[in-house]
Write a structure and sequence with these properties.
CATH topology of the largest domain: Nucleotidyltransferase, domain 5
Order of helices and strands: EEEHEHEHEEEHHHHHEHEH
Helix content: 40-55%
Number of strands: 10
Shape: globular
Largest sheet: 5 strands, mixed
CATH class of the largest domain: Alpha Beta
Number of domains: 2
Distance between the termini: 27 Å
CATH architecture of the largest domain: 2-Layer Sandwich
């Protein structure tokens, strides 16, 4: 632990949430997230609208983060920001702001990989939450990504499995759209699934070699199922909504857990962590907790506020990079398809 207090400002703008956070020696002092409601009426994120909203929200978010942390910008030691992956227009807003602020304050600039940040959010000092032991397997699940990552050290990560088509969050949202649940549908399916029978309806699990995932076939099967049953009975979906949601969630969680089990067996690693927006799903959390008893795993489940896109996870990566002296220069550019 450093002898002095090190303050890092984290900025996240990869998609439709404008976020800012301040961390001090690994402990989060503030974590501000400004969500954009405008996308709900379009049934998904509209990139141009997202970048415009970031321009409006970023200064207030940073101001609020500093105010909540009880520090002034002159006390900051570095600015960490999301370089990618994400929506290019959204990333450009955060990148440009971070570069300008770091230049104006004459302090280091730290670029952060968004997907690494979802994994390293586990290293935030938070009471009641243990940090994973190396090596561990990280299941990163969100609207845009589904990956199994072997993590040997903070910045030594290898993707050993990933989706070949849709991400798991996309599968939840598209399934919800088929059922008329609106956007985003993932949290609604999770809520309704608790009221239904997970084995009421059987949906196919895709056969994909190795540790990779596929969700496009499942989405198509759910669409055909809904169309077929609707033709028989127009009230079918409404009358069976809880059971349908429970069955969809049960199938998706089963797909994820099957691959994790294979990954653990192949690598011999029993420390398992989850991250990303879909890691807030109660079905996945419950399955992981049960796996501790069944497979002898040690599982690490993040605090809810660190699962969806947030700047606290950007700030902790910034802090870890600061300790290494791993800084970016003013020539750094955003990258929409940045890899781990």
């Amino acid at each position: 632990m450093p002898s002095q207090n090190i303050y890092i400002l984290g900025i996240e703008s990869s998609c439709d949430d404008t976020a800012a956070a301040v961390i001090c020696n690994g402990k989060i002092l503030s974590n501000v997230v400004t969500s954009q409601k405008i996308h709900e009426e379009y049934g998904g994120v509209v990139p141009e609208l997202a970048s415009r909203a970031h321009e409006q929200n970023i200064v207030p978010a940073v101001h609020q983060a500093l105010e909540k942390a009880g520090i002034s910008k002159s006390e900051l030691h570095a600015i960490a920001f999301t370089r990618g992956p994400g929506l290019m227009g959204s990333l450009l807003v955060g990148t440009s702001f971070a570069k300008s602020l770091a230049l104006g304050l004459d302090i280091p600039l730290i670029d952060v990989n968004h997907m690494q940040a979802h994994i390293l959010a586990h290293f935030i000092d938070e009471e009641g939450f243990e940090k994973p032991e190396f090596p561990f397997l990280a299941l990163t699940i969100s609207g845009g990504h589904t990956q199994i990552v072997k993590v040997t050290d903070h910045f030594d990560m290898d993707v050993i499995g990933e989706t070949i088509d849709d991400a798991v969050g996309e599968a939840f949202d598209k399934s919800g759209k088929i059922l008329g649940l609106g956007y985003p549908a993932g949290p609604v399916i999770d809520k309704l699934a608790k009221l239904g029978d997970p084995k009421a309806f059987r949906f196919p699990k895709p056969k994909v070699n190795g540790l990779n995932f596929s969700f496009s076939g499942l989405k198509t099967a759910i669409l055909y199922f809904a169309q077929r049953e609707f033709q028989k009975d127009p009230n079918f979906i409404k009358d069976n909504l809880n059971d349908i949601c429970a069955s969809i969630q049960y199938t998706i969680v089963g797909i994820l857990m099957d691959k994790l089990k294979i990954a653990s067996e192949q690598t011999g690693i029993i420390h398992i962590a989850i991250g990303g927006g879909v890691s807030a799903n109660s079905g996945i959390r419950e399955a992981l907790i049960n796996a501790e008893k069944t497979f002898g795993w040690t599982t690490y489940i993040p605090k809810f506020e660190f699962t969806t896109d947030n700047a606290a996870m950007i700030a902790i990566v910034g802090y870890l990079k600061y300790l290494k002296g791993d800084f970016a220069d003013q020539k750094v550019i955003a990258s929409a398809r940045l890899k781990i």
